[in-house]
Design a protein that fits this description.
The chain is mainly α. It has 2 domains: about 80 residues, no CATH class; about 90 residues. It contains 7 helices and no strands. Helix 2 packs across helix 3, helix 3 packs antiparallel against helix 4 and helix 6 runs antiparallel to helix 7. The chain starts with 11 loop residues before the first helix and ends with a helix.
C-alpha cells in the first residue's frame, strides 16, 4: 500500500488553511503555495516539507471534490425550485442522493485496503441514520396530512364561516 500523502498528515487547522489558500489562489501558483505551506510548517516546528508536486496532486483531487459539491448544490437548488419543496421533496431528494453516494463509497471500499475498510462501520451507520430519517420524515408527512384532513372535515361541517376559520387557525397554525 502506498504511503499516506503528507498533505493528509497536516494538523486539521493547517490543512483547512491550505484548502482556503488553494481556493483563494484558484488552484494555481503551486510554487508560491509550496513556499507558504513550508514556511507555516517551519513556524510551527513541524519537521516535514511538502513538495510542489504533492500539493498539486492534492489540489487536483480537492478541486474535483469541490466541483462535484458545487454541482450537487446546483442540482439541489434546481430541485427545490422545481418542486417548491412541497411535502419535503428537497429533503427527500437530498436524502436519496446522499444514500446513493454512501452506497457507492461502500462498494468502492470493499475493494480497498485495510486503510479504507476501517471507515465501513461509519458509513453503514450513516446509511442507517439516513434510512431512519427518511422513515421519520414519511411518518411526519402522513401525520400532518391526516391531521389536516380531520381539521378541514370538521371546519367544513361548521355552519359559521368565522368559526371555521378560527378553528383552522387554532388547530393548524396553533394561533
Amino acid at each position: 500500500m502506498p504511503p499516506r500523502p503528507k498533505v493528509l498528515q497536516l494538523p486539521d487547522d493547517l490543512k483547512a488553511a491550505l484548502d482556503r489558500e488553494l481556493i483563494r489562489r484558484g488552484f494555481a501558483d503551486y510554487h508560491a503555495l509550496e513556499a507558504w505551506i513550508n514556511a507555516e510548517l517551519e513556524k510551527r516546528g513541524l519537521e516535514m516539507t511538502l513538495s510542489q508536486a504533492g500539493l498539486q496532486r492534492y489540489g487536483v483531487k480537492f478541486s474535483e471534490r469541490l466541483t462535484r459539491l458545487q454541482e450537487a448544490t446546483q442540482m439541489a437548488k434546481a430541485v427545490a425550485e422545481a418542486a417548491g419543496d412541497d411535502e419535503g421533496a428537497l429533503n427527500e431528494a437530498t436524502l436519496r442522493l446522499a444514500q446513493e453516494h454512501v452506497f457507492q463509497l461502500l462498494l468502492d471500499m470493499e475493494q480497498g485496503g485495510e486503510e479504507t475498510r476501517k471507515y465501513i462501520p461509519k458509513l453503514t451507520r450513516a446509511v442507517a441514520d439516513m434510512s431512519r430519517a427518511s422513515v421519520q420524515q414519511n411518518k411526519f408527512r402522513d401525520e400532518v396530512k391526516r391531521r389536516l384532513s380531520e381539521v378541514l372535515d370538521h371546519a367544513e361541517s361548521a355552519t359559521d364561516p368565522a368559526a371555521a376559520l378560527r378553528m383552522i387557525r387554532e388547530e393548524i397554525y396553533g394561533l
